[in-house]
Design a protein that fits this description.
single chain; about 350 residues; alpha+beta; 60s Ribosomal Protein L30, Chain: A; five-stranded mixed β-sheet; 5 strands
Length: about 350
């Protein structure tokens, strides 16, 4: 009998070779190199020649021992190097150490902030002056538009001329050209975050019926007419901090009180200090009540007497608040007499 030979079938499974991770490393190196390149371009574009020379000097002489230039620091900020104290701690990193020369006083900080704000208002004035020159509406009247910086902020004044008044004589109706100017100024002021103060002014000429309607009323009416037109031009009503009529109390030309230039409207872009003062004056310097302040409310209106039941219910409350009782909480003599007549007054022994 022949010996059985097993049949062996070999099955070949084809496998796809996976890519290695080397490409990820190469791509990461490329991304880092590109980032470094863009940082280099940014630094070269944002530094001036002096800073570039300082950087060049640092890489040529990092130790800073050369006498020919360079710096011990990549960018020299003008300070001095920190030294180690007796405890071998760097004072620059010691949280308990305060350099008295490096701490600005509150007054210095406020002064610096006011200087920055003044410079910003000066820049705003330059922008407005340029806009007046470019505007077909305002350029013909540039001699009547006076810009200056005061302690309150940027002041914009529209003044009268003898043959070119802003309002109808003796009234608060705007001339058509004054309205166009205010509409354009309202558009300009809409992009300014500061609060706005408006003041109206007249010359020293008096009205025949000055007791009923005079320069005070006229200047106030004209200031409010300007306010309405500025808002119509795009300025938010919430920007208005104050509208004041000053009559002839703040003349533009004190030597000539009847001159037309004294008739004017002023718009002041307030700085923060002036805006805060107006807000404080408007609220009367009122302060918020402290949480610890205890207000004792009266138990009943004065027109009604106390009854025995009410005294029982409120005796404990009154004893707790005894130190804070105000006169308004106590019954008046009339109430006491009324309660006595009705036999509603009781001795404490009854409790």
């Amino acid at each position: 009998m022949e010996e059985f030979q097993p049949i062996i079938v070999k099955k070949v499974i084809k496998k796809h070779d996976h890519h290695g991770g080397s490409w990820k490393v190469a791509f990461a190196d490329f991304a880092v190199a590109m980032m470094a390149f863009f940082f280099l371009m940014w630094i070269l574009n944002s530094t001036n020649e002096t800073q570039k020379k300082a950087i060049e000097g640092y890489f040529k002489d990092p130790a800073g021992v050369s006498q020919s230039g360079g710096s011990r620091y990549v960018i020299d900020l003008g300070g001095s190097p920190q030294t180690l104290d007796a405890n071998n701690e760097t004072r620059g990193y010691d949280s308990d150490y305060i350099d008295p020369e490096g701490v600005m006083s509150a007054a210095a900080i406020e002064s610096a902030a006011e200087k920055i704000e003044r410079e910003r208002l000066q820049q705003l004035m330059n922008e407005l002056a340029q806009r007046i020159e470019e505007s077909e509406t305002m350029r013909p009247f540039k001699n009547q538009l006076v810009l200056d910086i005061t302690k309150e902020g940027l002041r914009i004044q529209i003044i009268d001329q003898s043959k070119r008044p802003m309002f109808d004589p003796g009234g608060a109706r705007l001339k058509y050209y004054t309205r166009d100017i205010l509409l354009e100024l309202g558009s300009f002021l809409s992009g300014v975050p500061n609060k706005i103060k408006l003041t109206g002014h007249t010359d020293a000429a008096k009205y025949a019926d000055d007791d009923d309607f005079g320069n005070w009323e006229l200047s106030s009416d004209r200031a409010n007419a300007a306010r309405r037109t500025l808002v119509e031009g795009g300025m938010s009503l919430n920007k208005v901090a104050e509208v004041v009529g000053l009559a002839d109390r703040a003349l533009f030309d004190e030597k000539r009180p009847f001159d037309p230039v004294n008739r004017r409207i002023a718009m002041i872009v307030l700085n923060k200090k002036a805006a805060a003062e107006i807000q404080s004056n408007a609220t009367g310097g009122r302060r918020e009540e402290s949480d610890s302040t205890k207000v004792i409310e009266p138990i009943r209106p004065r027109s009604q007497p106390f009854t025995k039941q009410e005294l029982r219910e409120n005796t404990q409350k009154l004893s707790d608040d005894l130190g804070d009782i105000q006169p308004d909480n106590l019954p008046s003599p009339d109430r006491y007499k009324e309660a006595q007549d009705n036999q509603q007054i009781w001795d404490l022994d009854d409790f």
